[in-house]
Amino acid sequence: MLPAVPVEETGTTLPIQRIALSEARSQLSALVQRAASQRALTAITVHDELKAYLIAPARLKALLEAERQSRPSRKGKPKLRGSLRIVGDLEAQGESPSDQLQRSALASAEAVDLE
Q1: What is the pLDDT of residue 7?
Q2: Rounded distance, CA 26 to CA 36, Å?
Q3: What is the biggest distance separating any 2 CA atoms in the chain, rounded to whole angstroms?
Q4: β-strand pairing of 12-20 with 4-7
């Protein structure tokens, strides 16, 4: 019996034919036709280890689109790049440059919060 993979849009499963690479070479034309016309999946194996799938372009496109839509959106997340404003003179005597930079960063963060 062939293993099956679920097909979300129809609620059914597609059979997966496992075939060795040496056999796939000799049957490649027929395997490509089968994948394109029947929306079947063919698993290509080397020494019984799965190495690749033969899948129709339309099915791959649908899978990639479903994956893209399932990813969380990046909209609404604040960007840090460009949010730092150096306030004051970093070359002034008295404070170390790291203390001045820290003070400037805190002032910049407060200014961004007020906007």
Answers
A1: 44
A2: 18
A3: 81
A4: antiparallel
Q: Are 19 and 31 in contact (CB under 8 A)?
A: yes
CA distances from 1 to 15, 18, 64 (A): 9, 11, 28
pTM of the model: 0.48
In order, the DSSP letters of 20-62 are EHHHHHHTHHHHHHHHHHH--EEEEEETTEEEEEE--HHHHHH
Which two tokens mark 14? 């597609």
10-43: b (≥16 Cβ within 10 Å) or e = eeeebeebeeeeeebeeeeeebeebbeeeebbbb
